[in-house]
Every structure is written in structure tokens, then in C-alpha cells.
Amino acid sequence: MSKPKAIQETIDLGDGRSIIIETGVLAKQADGAVMVRMGDTMMLASVVSAKNAKEDTDFMPLSVDYKEKYAALGKFPGGFLKREARPSDYEILIARLVDRALRPLFPDDYHADTFVNVTLMSAEADTPPDALAGLAASAALAVSDVPFHGPIAEARVARVNGKMVVNPTFSQMEEADIEIMVGATYDNILMVEGEMKEVSEADMLEAIKFAHEAIKPMCKAQLALTKKTGKEEKREYSHEVKDEELSKRTWKETYDAAYKIAKSGNADKHARSEAFGQVKEDFLAKLVKEAGEEGEVNEMLVAKYYHDVEKEAVRRAILDDKIRLDGRKTDEIRPIWSEVDYLPSAHGSAVFTRGETQSITTVTLGTKMDSKLIDDVMKKGNDKFLLHYNFPAFSTGEARPNRGTSRREVGHGNLAHRALKGMLPSSDDMPYTLRIVSDILESNGSSSMATVCAGTLALMDAGVQIKKPVS
Q: What is this structure's pTM?
């Protein structure tokens, strides 16, 4: 049997490097699969989507996984088993970056289980592979028949010695004062995440625009690949029952009541939620009564249409009347109170409360023996600054068990970690290992930013000479 003929597209990065996207050779039983290569870095991405949606599913059940093989860099995994196990925090963060860019571009009415897997198969020691993950995932969708309003790509931009660089090396990133990852379609920015050393907004916008210009050829290459593989036509599907008459009636009979609640300025999240819910329940009761014993009401469809009503009512109250849900004006922040040294035995502690969002945060100082050992595929060494973010179910009044660290907790902890690490003293001035733990006790938005504020207070309470406070 001869090797299948590869279908390829090449992207010129303009600095002597190029990215090659190849399909038609590997993982052909997946709905779509590509191998993306830049230098010796090679990444396999695949997508598989179920033909039908599960019953009563009204959301997009997308799962994105990113995995780095130790063999990619000629290394053995650590531990007794000597094999790749659960994803590292780094792998979780990359999967979340890809998910964030892909998820909004699936059709609103597409509800089939969809799995995107991106695997690092070969690596170069000084080349971060994560910037290729979004491109690889989108390219796999581009050569599949899965409905997707893409393509997208992601690019990392760093400013090194005043010059913008696309997909920099690890060495260049150490010297950068701007380092951001941008996800975008050909026309629009989807996602930005990164860190900077107190640069201006104009510099940040320049970096985002520079990244977008680098992403456009990547999107063009995927469109060309779609054409070459004959995948312009996507699969037909019907995952939603539509009832235009019910939709119009839901809007007509519930919008005014929902708008009145949105404008009421009730600062109690749960009371407000109950009020919105009561409007839907009253409308459902009316429909059930009209249908009688022999009739049937599609409660799931009513809930979907009412969700759209509620969303628009809240939006119009803010945009037209300048009133936010809890009664604030658009330029007002929620009431804040905070307290340091809340826990007497901790090295440092603080409570930070903004409206209905609350974090109790501790700081613990340790020796270099307490530092975290990093033995990932691309990274090896020790981390002397740890930040852990915990989001228990009771913080939102949910009745469910807490089972291990969620991807969300890893992601939000990383945001706060990025915000604070630049303000810590140098290792020469502070030889300690630092661990910050933020436990969210209440949540009504911006809990990761509450972690930043509480973390700043707890660091100062512990006597850590931070360069500047962060909020």
C-alpha cells in the first residue's frame, strides 16, 4: 500500500520561517485532521463531532484537549508510571485559549457533542508550540464537514527591544515587555490574553493589530485548504425544533415584565433571579392552562425563547436607560470593603468584597525547598511563586459537591498570577517561595479580579515589599 498523497498549504511568516498545514495522510477516520509544522515543531489536530445531538441539549457541548508528548522532545515522563497522565496546568491553559476562540463560531443551533484534540508530536527546545494550537484546531475543522463559522488562528506577539515579533522563541519572550496571545478570524479579534510591563494602551493596540495582520494569511491558507479538500459544503443538521409563533408570543407577553425587573435596580442577585424566573413560570402556567390535559407545551423551547427575552431586556436597560441590573450607573463600581490580617495564624491574609463577590486570601512564605518542581515537556525548573484559586459551589449558592480542581479554577488562578508576578520583588531581594491561595466565598462576577485585589492586600500584610499595589 502506498502512502496517501498529502494536501498542503504553506504560510510565510515573513521572517524566514514558514508554517505548513498538511492533511490527508494521518488520522483519516476523524471528521477532520491536520498536521501543522513550523521548523521541527509538529502538532496533530483532529476533530470528531457526533451526527446527532443528545435529547434536550440546548448548548454547544464542545470539548477541547491539548496534550504534549514527552517523546516530542526526547524526554521520559516523570513519576512511577512513566507515561503521560492527567493534563498539566499549562496544557489546561492552552486548551482553554483554543476553546475560547472556537466556541463562539459554531452555529447557535448546533448541539452535537464535538471533540477537538491537539497533540504536540515533535518540538524544538526554544520554540513555544502553544501559538500553533489554535491554528491546528481550526484547520482540522476547516477540512471537516462540521459546521463552523471560521476559520480562526492564534498568534503570539512579543515586543523585543522595541520590535514586534510573531511567535517568538522562549529566549525572546524573556526579554519582552509585551507578550500577548491573540485569537481572531480574518475580520475580527476574538480573544486576547497576555501580560505587559506597564505599557501604554497605544502600544497594546499596536501589538493586537500586528498579531491580527499575522493571523490573516493563516485564515486564507485554511480557506484554500478547505477548497482543496472539497469540504466547502458542511453537513446538514437539525438540532432544534423551531416555533416562530411561540417565539413571537413569548416576546410579546414577557418582555415588558422582564424589562421592568431589569430596570428595578435590585442589588440582590438571587432575588432578581427569582423575579426573572417567576415571569417565565407565569407564562408557562398560562400556556399549560390553555393547552389543557390533552395538549403539550415545549418547556425547553419556552426557556430558550425567554432567555433571549431576558438578555435583550437587560441589554436595553443598560444601553437605553443607563441602568445596570443592581441599580448602578454605567460608570459606578459596586460597594467595596476590605480587611487585612483577618486570619491571625496566616503569614498574611485579607478579605476583599466588591458587591456580591468576595475573596478571602492567604499568603504563605516558605524556603526554596517549598518551590514547585516543574517537569513538563517544554519547561523544566522551579517556580517560587504559586497562586491557587478555589471556587467552591457554595459561593454561588449551588448545591453540588466539590470534586478536585476545575479547568476554570486553573484559568482564573493564572489570570491573577499574571497580574501580580510582575510586582513581586526580585529573587535577590526576596529569597522566599510565595504561595497565595484565594478562596472565593461569594461570586457575582469578577472573582479573578477580586483575587488580584485580595492578593495585593495579603502580600502587603505578609510584609512582602511589592513594587506597586495591583487591582
A: 0.91
